[in-house]
Amino acid sequence: MPRVLIVDDDTDFTEAARRVLQSDGHDVRVLTFVEKAMDALQADPPDCLVLDVMFPEDATAGFDLAREVRKRDELSRLPILILTAVNTRFPLGFGPKDIDNHWLPVQDFLEKPVDFDVLKERVRRLCEEGKKAGRGYPRESL
User: Fold this and answer.
1) Relative to the CA of 60, which of 19, 52, 54, 101 has its CA 20 to 30 Å away?
2) For residues 2 and 131, what is the distance between their CA atoms, to the nearest angstrom?
3) pTM exceeds 0.90
4) C-alpha distances in angstroms, 110 versus 81, 98, 116, 121, 139?
């Protein structure tokens, strides 16, 4: 069962996304704060990270976390999907065109509000790509 970690402070969204992704066969964990996300990722790496950009304490915390994940050898190939409403608050036009290895080191970008069928498809694809890339983190439970 593919494992997904959602890091997003919007509890209404995270609960809906959890239900949708669980119905698609994923094991879903949710963090509504970004401060402990790196600890959670290192302690129990998921197969895919769904990450918001803006948090109450820092409007760019998701960007920063994505960059930090890429610096960690054990997480460097973790598939990341940025899912955000940043363009609603700051109409700067962020999108898939901004994905690169340094500034926005993620595999995919979706804007909120999101179509949950699109979210399911993107998460499914990222989990499959991660598996094909041989990400395969050792887990004590195996």
Assistant:
1) 19
2) 9
3) no
4) 7, 12, 11, 12, 29
How is the beta sheet containing 48-51 ordered, strand by strand? Answer: 27-31, 3-7, 48-51, 80-84, 108-111
Question: 19-23, 52-56, 119-123, 128-132: lowest mean pLDDT where?
Answer: 128-132
Give the count of beta carbons closer than 10 Å to the beta carbon of residue 100: 9
Looking at domain 3-132, its CATH class is: alpha beta
Residue among 111, 119, 141 at smallest CA distance from 22: 119
Could you give the CA distance from residue 107 to residue 125 in angstroms, rounded to a whole number? 10
Nearest of 95, 119, 90 to residue 13 by alpha carbon:
119
> How confident is the model over 73-113, as pLDDT tens digits?
999 999 999 998 766 666 666 667 767 777 788 999 999 99
CA distance 31 to 51: 10
- CB-based contact 120:28 (threshold 8 Å): no
**Model pLDDT, residue 102:** 72
